[in-house]
Amino acid sequence: MKKVFISWIGFNDLDSLKKDSKGKGPVRAFIDSDFANSIDEFHFLFNSVRADDTTKFLKNLHKNFDYEIYEHDSGKIDPTDFRQIYVSVKKVLDEIEEKFKGKSIQWHFHTSPGTPQMSSVWLLLSATLYKAILYQAYQDKVSVVDIPFNIDAEYIDKLRTEADRKLNSIWSKSAEASLISHKSEIMKDTLETALKIARRDVPAFILGETGTGKEEFAKFIHENSKRSGKLFHAVNCAAIPEELVESILFGHEKGSFTGASLDKVGVFEAYNGGTIFLDEIGDLSLNAQTKILRVLQEFEIQKVGSIKSIKVDVRIISATHKDPAKLISEGKFREDLFHRINIGMFKIPPLREREEDIMTLADFFLNEINQKFSEDTKAYPYKHKKFSVSTKNFIKNYGWTGNVRELKNSITRACMMIDGGVIEVEKFKELLVMYTGKTGSIVDGLKVSLPVKLDDMIEEIRLSHIESALEKSGGNKTKAAKLLGWESYQKLDHYLKKINDKK
After folding, report:
1. In terms of residue numbers, what domain contains 339?
2. Which segments in the chain show pLDDT lower than 70?
3. Does residue 110 lie within any of the structural domains?
4. Residue 227's domain is classified under what CATH number?
5. Are residues 110 and 66 in the same domain?
6. List of residues 6+ apart from 463 with CB closer than 8 A
7. How many Å is the Cα radius of gyration of the chain?
């Protein structure tokens, strides 16, 4: 382990060479102390003020002490400017770390020389980025600094609160800001995870049900990454015909296939340097997945009909609403690709797992839609809407299987179709599009055209909810029964038999 001492040279150090000096100065005091004996290297920073005195002082150190002493001229920095001080110190620290790359460094910071701002930077660096031993000198006596507080314990919570505020501020400027409006801890944790991933230029993999906002999270990661000034492009993999996948993603050369009358630039080449979001990557063919794997491994693409490779530098963010493990076991997804893209993997929680966010989101959507629909009141008169108490209760307790997207679409539909200023619960229910799940049946609201086989419709909805309860409970009948409001699973067994008979 290398023991490295680093300090500013202050005016007290320079004045120590004067004939009428009453002390050594903090730098000389340290070098004369027993602490100096274990140090491998001494590094001294200084600015251009009193340049001649600084030169004399350094010559004196080299002449009188047989240590490895290094000089770092920080130029015309303002010794009271925190940013300039930090940049100067960090530059030296980075250079030393690069010099001893692969070796451990024990840092020793001297807090006494220089301005109070310079001392503060040492304190902050030692409590955050560098675990250093701190020293102070008083009347030529040197001692280790014993900080009587813990920055992590006392201040990190405040810093996180401020970070959350800034995070929400960033999102509020986004077109899809509503998706992160939250009160729940689970959503807060998800956002913090996404932000950590954003800071590292690694592949990201987003899991989540339909409508949870996977593309918006991908945009968030891009906007908070080092590629934020570059282009972002979303590709819906499920919507690309199999025969066009390679051409769209990687481009093609003229004449490479029937209809290829011109050279075409693919997505990866067009958005080189930026971020590409591959939504529903699990729907790509295994052949296309192989080509994506090559981009991640070799950082290059090959156009259809070309023998040349093109180097590309893109960040890939992928997403799927399906279970990757199941896709792999079914032979539909390459395991090696999964291990390449899952470095920054996280799951967006469904709306039912963040119930305390539902009304926060609903109120956000309502305000947003009211503003949007009021933009052209001359052509289309519009009255601002508000929810009745009963509607609020219904919204909070409804299942929202389509998650945030379904919630927003339902409120948009209500604002569009209701003429009055209040969204009453019965009208809201009438306008609600209810998707019954695996059966694929859609019921337009709770009010349907007659004639209808009401018992069949109710039974269909009941069986769909039973399947959802079993899925959520992991197949535990007792838990599923409780989710459905039944005291025991005997009643559940009765309906399970019906489900099996239908299959």
Report:
1. 158-349
2. 147-181, 376-379, 434-460, 464, 498-503
3. yes
4. 3.40.50.300
5. yes
6. 439, 495, 498, 499, 502
7. 32
Asked if 303 and 294 count as a contact pair (C-beta separation under 8 A), the reply is no
The number of folded domains in the chain is 4
Are residue 182 and residue 331 in the same domain, yes or no? Answer: yes
Nearest to 235 by CA among 211, 222, 218, 221: 218
Tell me the CB-side half-sphere exposure of residue 193, using CA atoms within 13 A: 18
- Same domain, yes or no: 315 and 419: no
Q: Across-strand partners of 8?
A: 45
How many CB atoms are closer than 10 A to CB 57? 21
| β-strand pairing of 2-8 with 41-46 | parallel
Name the phi and psi angles at 166, rounded to 5: -65, -40
Instruction: Looking at the structure, tell me whether residues 338 and 194 fall in a common domain.
Output: yes
Domain CATH code at residue 109: 3.40.50.10770
The pairs formed by 114-123 with CB atoms below 8 angstroms and a separation of 24 or more are 114/8, 114/9, 114/10, 114/79, 115/10, 115/79, 115/80, 117/79, 117/80, 117/81, 117/82, 117/85, 118/8, 118/10, 118/79, 118/85, 120/82, 121/82, 121/85, 121/86, 121/89, 122/89, 123/147
The token pair at 430 is 């009438």
The CA distance from 440 to 489, in Å, is 26
| Helix H or strand E segment including 43 | strand 41-46
Beta strands 141-144 and 442-444: pairing type?
Answer: unpaired
| pLDDT tens figures, 33-70 | 999 999 999 999 999 889 999 999 999 999 988 899 99
Q: 3-state DSSP: the chain helix, strand, coil percent, rounded to 5?
A: 50, 15, 35
Same domain, 47 and 83: yes
Shared-domain flag, residues 211 and 270: yes
Residue 478: both structure tokens together: 């007792």
Burial profile 470-480: b = 16 or more Cβ within 10 angstroms, e = fewer: beebeeebeeb
Q: pTM of the predicted model, to two decimals?
A: 0.55
User: Is residue 300 classed as helix, strand or coil in its secondary structure?
Assistant: strand
Strands (E), 157-299: 204-207, 232-236, 251-252, 264-265, 275-279
Q: What is the pLDDT of residues 232-280, one digit of tens each?
A: 999 999 888 888 888 899 988 888 887 777 888 899 999 999 999 999 9
Structure tokens at 17: 């060479």
Question: ∠342-347-353 over CA atoms, to 5°?
Answer: 165
Q: Is residue 153 part of a domain?
A: no
